[in-house]
Amino acid sequence: MTGDWIDDNRISYDTVAEAYAEQVRDALAGQPHLLAALAVFAEAVRAGGGGPVADMGCGPGHVTAHLRGLGVDAFGVDVSPAMVGVARRDHPGLRFEAGSMTDPQLAGAPLGGLLSWWSLVNVPDDAVPGILAGFGRPLRPGAPLLLGFHAGEGARPKTEGYGGHPMQIHVYRRVPERVAGWLRGAGFAVEAQWLLDPDEQRPSAVLFARAAAPRP
Ligand SMILES: C[S@@+](CC[C@H](N)C(=O)[O-])C[C@H]1O[C@@H](n2cnc3c(N)ncnc32)[C@H](O)[C@@H]1O
Question: Has residue 75 been placed in a domain?
């Protein structure tokens, strides 16, 4: 570990970018509930008048591309330049930028929606409320935010992954109500909460929220 979680994430995901992309390339196909959540999100973006949608922590860009297929003007941002390179290579028509989700200027404004799909799972708890507040700033009032993450409790260090590559990150599981509370504190109205695979060892959660009017 470098002592800086952003550097740890960047270095680790740079190391596994190719292997990660290989593993998730077709992952959505077997996930009807995730596909349904993405479809609801895409419909909300379209109903709100469209506009650019940021996929923050986009990894290899397969979800960005899926949203494009649903008619959303999606682009991706990731802290790992190697992930961005894989995303650009695999989805040459789409826009991908390197940068950290902690930078509120990064996404540009105004946005018609924002997605964080399993990209807060390596972010420490104390950084999440500030990041969510930053997500709210470029969003048009009423624009949708979709978060996907590991449900549950606790954090564990991950020292290798995706075929045995070295990694130095933490993986966080979170109770959906806690994340919903953070969203409300960041000015979002929470509209839906899905708990997926509640009977399995590793449940997932998806939260759908909307940006409030900007605070004076
Ligand atoms: C578990 S992967 C999820 C990738 C993709 N969204 C997906 O669903 O497969 C976590 C991603 O978040 C990115 N990430 C971690 N910290 C970040 C940060 N501070 N800013 C932007 N991206 C970050 C990592 O580089 C990695 O690509």
Answer: yes
Rounded to whole angstroms, the Cα distance separating 155 from 202 reads 13
Nearest CA to ligand 1 atom 9: 59
Domain ranges, residue 119: 5-211
Out of 119, 122, 149, mutate this one to test ligand 1's pocket (max ligand atoms within 8 Å of CB): namely 119
For 96, the token pair is 């991908």
Question: Is 216 inside any structural domain?
Answer: no
Residue linked to tokens 């996930």: 31
23 ligand 1 Cβ < 6 A: no
pLDDT of 125 > 70? The answer is yes
Q: Per the domain annotation, does 43 fall within a domain?
A: yes
Please provide the average confidence, as pLDDT, over all residues in the chain. Answer: 95
- pLDDT tens digits, one per residue of 27-39: 999 899 999 999 9
Domain count along the chain: 1
